[in-house]
Design a protein that fits this description.
Elements: H1 3-9, E1 15-24, E2 31-33, E3 48-51, E4 54-55, E5 61-64, E6 69-72, E7 83-90, H2 95-103, H3 109-125, E8 130-132, E9 135-137, H4 139-162, E10 164-173, E11 183-193
Antiparallel strand pairs: 1-7, 2-6, 3-4, 3-7, 5-6, 8-9, 10-11
């Protein structure tokens, strides 16, 4: 199953951070952390960094999308008092993380998705509920929701494993009289063996 399909199962759509205040320059510090990561790898070229409202040249910084780190290159530390804002897209899990989880569960999409939810729940549970400025997040609630989703996906996997799809086909004479249509084939029964 593709990474995109796993993202659908765990509801990990691309999300956007707009005008995130990443930090304030002091003329020395070159390292800043995004609130959310990993960055969506296919659009990291579309990340926009602003220094006091002016777009920063892309050759003045580097991005470590998997860990959400913004590093200004030597000689390009933001000036003292410069406000650093960012626009970017991110996911809850990187494509590499999903692929690594998937490698242990080849062709088991619900188990892959369930394990992805467990990873996200474990990550969320490391944090606590907090409010800082205008940001208020309760990571405990997020972790509990992810654990519930993980259980649902895992149960779906085992439900699908225990059911056998049965069916039989037969042919019957065609009474419509249409040319090249002497016989039709139909499915007589499709059901699940309990």
């Amino acid at each position: 199953m593709s990474v995109a399909n796993i993202r659908i199962l765990i509801a990990d759509r691309n999300k956007a951070a707009v005008n995130e205040r990443v930090g304030e320059g002091d003329g020395v510090n070159r390292y800043f952390q995004f609130d959310m990561f990993p960055l969506v790898s296919s659009v990291t070229a579309n990340v926009a960094i602003f220094l006091t409202g002016v777009t920063a040249a892309t050759n003045t910084y580097l991005l470590s999308g998997d860990i959400g780190r913004l590093t200004f290159t030597d000689g390009n530390a933001p000036a003292n008092g410069a406000t650093i804002l960012a626009h970017y897209d991110y996911n809850a899990l990187s494509s590499g993380e999903i692929s690594q989880i998937e490698s242990g569960h080849t062709s088991e999409p619900y188990l892959v998705a369930a394990n992805c939810c467990l990873v996200l729940a474990a990550d969320a549970s490391r944090y606590f509920a907090y409010t800082m400025g205008d940001k208020s997040v309760d990571k405990r609630r997020i972790a509990n929701n992810l654990l519930e989703l993980s259980k649902t996906l895992e149960n779906r996997h085992y439900t699908m494993q225990s059911k056998n799809i049965a069916g039989s086909t037969f042919s019957f004479p065609d009474t419509t009289g249409l040319p090249y249509n002497n016989f039709d084939t139909a499915v007589a029964y499709i059901g699940e063996d309990e």
